[in-house]
Design goal:
This protein is α/β, with parallel strands linked by helices. The chain has 3 helices and 5 strands; from the N terminus they run αβαβββαβ.
Amino acid sequence: MEEHGLSVRVVSSVERMKECDVLLFAPQAGPRAGGLLRSLAGEPVLTMGAMPGFARMGGMVELPDPGAGRRLTVNLGATRRSGFRVHPGLMGAADFLRRE
């Protein structure tokens, strides 16, 4: 198995975002997140966000607020369009948004 490095960086342009494997949207992205997610739709980039409504905006995985007692929310339409599959082990740990 090949070794892969991990690099963490702040990116601001959509073109740079398309070069990433995983993007984590901070709550500070706010209203800007929806437009960025539309620009990334169909790209093989796993999008995760720690803000309410992230999955409904088109993000793939909405991370719950640690104090809210919520579960992950996974947008199945967004994950499929980008070529990702959801592992069956996640089925009991997440809520699923079924949008195509």
